[in-house]
Amino acid sequence: MAWFKRKEKGITTATEDKMDIPKGLWYKSPTGKIIDAEELARNLFVSPEDGFHVRIGSTEYFQILFDNNEFVELDENMTSKDPLHFVDTKKYADRLKDVMGKTKLKDAVRTGVGKSKGKDLVICCMDFAFIGGSMGAVVGEKIARGIDHAIKNKLPFVMISKSGGARMMEAAYSLMQLAKTSVKLAQLAEAKLPYISLCTDPTTGGTTASYAMLGDINISEPGALIGFAGPRVVRDTTGKDLPEGFQTAEFLLEHGFLDFITPRKELKDKINLYIDLIQNNNIR
Fold it and tell me: What range(s) does the CoA carboxyltransferase N-terminal domain occupy (predicted)?
């Protein structure tokens, strides 16, 4: 019924109160494909019509990769401090408190130890929902401790990156994590243990400049944004026009920066296959 006839017909119910379908039951992919939210979850958050991979977090990746979603979380209560008493639009301490309340996460990475296809492994997974997956001191420390656990117990190590880069509120403390995690990965290599790096959308900044691109095998999900600086910064720095899609996983694969692109449905099988290849062929 036209809105201008509602009043004369005695209809005064607000439109939002007449909605028959609650919000959040449907998902629209960037290409315009519509999918039921429950079906999307059953399909591992991949749109079946166009293959678009929706961003997910550590909870979903652990469900996908660990057998029966059974794992032990390491350092789960480790939280960030505010050594610089940083303030931008709000105090960093307040920002941490707010985001922990909203996401129910302690920081931007979680570490799980469990079995995948019957084999024990360590998985560190970043959460973009926590301040853009930014890399602060806690992120670096938890990754370092995850690698230490892998070395001590002679387990493969998997890193799932999803990050906007270094956490500016921690300044140099954040940048130190690039070296810290890289050194730990060198120790993992000396122990001849496999390291699989999975780049998801987005993997940028200091994350890309350190652990995300140091895998024995570097893989990605389809369509992931992977790069160091944003396109505008790169364009302004180089003074050149950039190729279309130059920071997509497909472009990086074509130019040798990735080994494989793996759809989410195949992640568990492919990660275990790559680990077996490294261990059985002693390619290190």
Answer: 24-284
**46 C-beta neighbours (distance < 10 Å), count:** 19
The H or E element that residue 199 is part of is: strand 195-203
**CB-CB contact of 36 with 77 (8 Å):** no
- Asked if residue 228 lies in contact with residue 203, where contact means CB atoms within 8 angstroms, the answer is no
Q: What percent of the chain is modeled with pLDDT above 70?
A: 90
Mean pLDDT (the chain) is: 91
**Domain chopping of the chain, boundaries:** 1-54, 56-279
Comparing CA positions, the residue from 143, 140, 75 lying closest to residue 105 is: 75
180 CB-contact burial (10 Å; exposed 0-12 / middle 13-18 / buried 19+): middle
| SS3 (DSSP) at 193 | coil
The pLDDT of residue 8 is 55
Q: What is the pTM of this model?
A: 0.88
pLDDT tens, position by position, 185-239: 999 999 999 999 999 999 999 999 999 999 999 999 999 999 998 888 888 888 8
* Distance separating alpha carbons of residues 53 and 179, to the nearest angstrom: 31
Q: What is the dihedral of CA 175, 195, 62, 54, to 10 degrees?
A: 70
Please check whether residue 107 is in contact with residue 145, taking contact to mean a CB–CB distance below 8 angstroms. no
99 in Cβ contact with 70 (< 8 Å): no
CATH 3.40.50.410, domain 56-279, yes or no: no
How high is the pLDDT of residue 232? 84
